[in-house]
Amino acid sequence: MRILLIEDNARLANAIVERLQLDGHAADHCGTLSLAQDHLRVATYDLILLDIMLPDGDGRHFLEQQRRAENATPVIVITARSAVSDRVSLLDLGADDYITKPFDFSELEARCRAVLRRQGGSAANIKRFSDILLDPHSGELEVGGRRETLRNRELRLLEVFFNAPGQVFSKTHLMDRLFSFSDEVTENAIEVYVGRLRKRLEGSQVRIQTVRGLGYRLVGPN
């Protein structure tokens, strides 16, 4: 998925971005709220990681503004404040979760997965569509009793299709979901990953269909 990190501590931000990328996510980093606003105007994100104390303002005000603007993108707040009243205040403002500094990266990853599962309306890891099963946590795809471990971007792309079967996604939209601004890629990259997924899905009743001039969609048996 594509994640926006708003954090002014460069060392911490670099470590978080590197970890997210290793986990297969596209991650953009902003050190200020104004830059974050610019990113949100031109890109769609699946999750926002938000620090509170930033050079040009308070992350709580930013969160409140996003919710007033009806931006429902999940937000995990990164905070150094551990008081119960502070955590309750963040949740009341519209945060989906929070994590207190210092934290272990494995905990951050787990919280990201949990928030994204809830956003997708599921409390479980395993997703099913027609005759295939997908475990986003392990990256395992089960097709006709055969198990395969997907590569990171294969997994993220299949998740996009899984979350909206039948919906047509343009190459531009898929690039936006899979790659960050720092990635130098072309639309051909999407063709490559779609081709790989089609091979993974061989033997199932599910296929990725090309909609000429529009993009791709995941379809099951008629």
Polypeptide structure, described:
With about 220 residues, the protein is of the alpha/beta class. Helix content is about 40%, strand content about 25%. The protein has 8 helices and 13 strands. The strands form 4 sheets. Strands 2-1-3-6-7 form a 5-stranded parallel β-sheet, with helices on both faces. It has a 4-stranded antiparallel β-sheet with strand order 8-9-10-11, with helices on one face. Helix 6 (about 150-160) crosses helix 8. The longest helix is centred in the middle third of the chain and has 15 residues, at about 105-120. The chain is elongated. The chain starts with a strand and ends with a strand.
CATH superfamily of the largest domain: Response regulator
Q: Class by helix and strand content? A: alpha/beta
Order of helices and strands: EHEHEEEHEHEHEEEEHHHEE
CATH class of the largest domain: Alpha Beta
> Which fold name corresponds to the CATH topology of the largest domain?
Rossmann fold
Note the main attributes of this structure.
elongated; 222 residues; 8 helices; 5-stranded parallel sheet; alpha/beta; 24% strand; 13 strands
Describe the structure concisely for a colleague.
The protein is an alpha/beta fold and 222 residues long. It has helices at residues 10-22, 33-42, 59-68, 84-93, 105-119, 152-162, 171-178, 188-200; strands spanning 2-6, 26-30, 47-51, 53-54, 57-58, 75-79, 97-100, 127-129, 132-135, 140-143, 146-149, 207-211, 215-219.
